[in-house]
Write a structure and sequence with these properties.
Layout lengths: L1 E5 L2 E2 L2 E2 L1 H16 L3 E7 L4 H9 L4 E5 L9 H14 L2 E7 L2 H14 L2 E6 L10 E6 L4 E6 L5 E5 L14 E4 L30 E5 L10 H10 L2 E4 L1 H5 L20 E5 L5 H4 L7 E6 L6 H4 L2 E4 L2 H15 L1
Parallel strand pairs: 1-4, 1-6, 4-5, 5-11, 6-10, 7-10, 12-13, 12-14, 14-15, 15-16
Antiparallel strand pairs: 2-3, 8-9
Helix pairs in contact: 3-4, 5-9
The chain binds flavin-adenine dinucleotide.
Flavin-adenine dinucleotide (FAD) binds next to helix 6, helix 7, strand 15 and helix 9.
Length: 321
């Protein structure tokens, strides 16, 4: 019996959310007395793949087909289904991402499997297979019992920390042919809208709201982000007013982020904003209104004027570097 984990990458590197999934797979395999196997699809150097060994799984199946270099749900689901069958996988684990959300349902159909998305902990296997998952954009939890032989799980971000082991990996190159129908819609070209750090993968996010008064003050957000190596985000009204591009809008109707550190500057903390940030490990709120709702969700709060507080933080962050 094995636990198969799909490690998704970006620009030749394994994403941090995938390393979390790899570590979860290693822990789960140990719990089930099985072995964990990782699969990557696309072009990766052995150095990039070594991150998977550090995260706890030493067997890596690499499908380096040029046709599959760009991520696509249909052919990736076919490849993963075939590997799952070859490896006799009883659990197939994917990180949480828009690609993996699309793959997971297709995979469940192909493998006649049950599925639970956004799993937050290792399953309870004392009687059956019960997983805890986050629901209502993180405001509640549900426990799901999976009874089919094969189970598909997607892992919520920040559910486990990636392990830091020193294990060497064994990489097996695989050729898997995919049905022509899977390639009927292909990505032929991609272009970055921004050269900045990817918001969904960033370890630190600095976000600004209407409290910053206007786009001319955004240097406070970008300078702090630069000093911390962070991505930048914003509240919805900020992108609606075109102070910032729409792809930076964080929240229920925007991007959902799960960084280690989320710094909110001049954002009130409306429920729709919190829905996009409430799985962050630590939240720091800077707001001049001590009654701003965001403080209730914060791990650390600074009650103060952003125009006075943020320059001091930038200075301190630069010194730390
Ligand atoms: C269906 C629906 C979906 C929505 N989806 C989203 C979403 O995905 N994301 C989202 O963000 N919003 C969303 N909203 C909007 C949301 O309800 C809030 O209106 C919005 O988040 C408020 O943005 P804000 O905090 O930037 O602005 P405000 O509510 O105006 O808050 C500004 C804050 O800045 C503080 N401030 C002012 N001056 C300073 C200063 N000098 N220093 C420090 N602090 C200062 C104020 O005290 C205040 O708390 C949605 C709303 C609806 C109805």
């Amino acid at each position: 019996m094995s636990v198969l984990v799909f490690a998704e990458g970006s620009e030749g590197q394994i994403k941090n959310s995938s390393l979390e999934a790899v570590s979860y797979a290693a822990l789960l395999a140990e719990k089930l007395n099985g072995k964990a196997v990782a699969t990557v699809i696309g072009s990766y150097t052995n150095e990039a793949l070594s991150a998977i060994g550090k995260a706890g799984v030493t067997k890596v199946l690499h499908v380096a087909d040029e046709k599959l270099a760009k991520p696509m749900a249909m052919p990736y689901a076919s490849v993963l289904a075939e590997i799952a069958q070859r490896e006799n996988a009883e659990v197939v684990l994917l990180p949480r991402s828009s690609l993996c959300d699309s793959i997971a349902g297709r995979l469940a159909k192909k493998l006649d499997a049950s599925i639970a998305t956004g799993v937050t902990e290792l399953p309870d296997i004392s009687s059956g297979f019960r997983v805890k998952k986050s629901i209502y954009t993180g405001k509640a939890y549900a426990w799901i019992e999976l009874t089919s032989k094969v189970k598909i799980l997607t892992l919520a971000k920040n559910a486990v920390a990636p392990m830091q082991k020193d294990s060497a990996i064994s990489v097996e190159q695989l050729q898997i042919s995919v049905p022509d129908g899977d390639m009927a819609a292909r990505i032929t070209q991609t272009e970055k809208a921004t050269g900045d750090i990817l918001l969904t993968e960033a370890r630190i996010v600095v976000s600004g709201g209407r409290g910053l008064k206007g786009p001319e003050n955004w240097h406070l957000v970008t300078e702090l982000a630069k000093a911390l190596g962070a991505a930048t985000g914003c509240s919805k009204p900020v992108s609606d007013m075109n102070w910032r591009p729409h792809h930076e809008h964080v929240g229920q109707t925007g991007v959902k982020v799960s960084p280690d550190l989320y710094i909110a500057i001049g954002i009130s903390g409306a429920i729709q904003h919190l829905a996009g940030v409430n799985t962050s490990k630590y939240i720091v709120v800077i707001n001049n209104d001590a009654d701003a709702p965001f403080f209730k969700a914060a791990d650390y709060g600074i009650v103060g004027d952003a125009f006075q507080v943020v320059p001091k933080l930038i200075e301190a962050a630069k010194k730390l570097k």
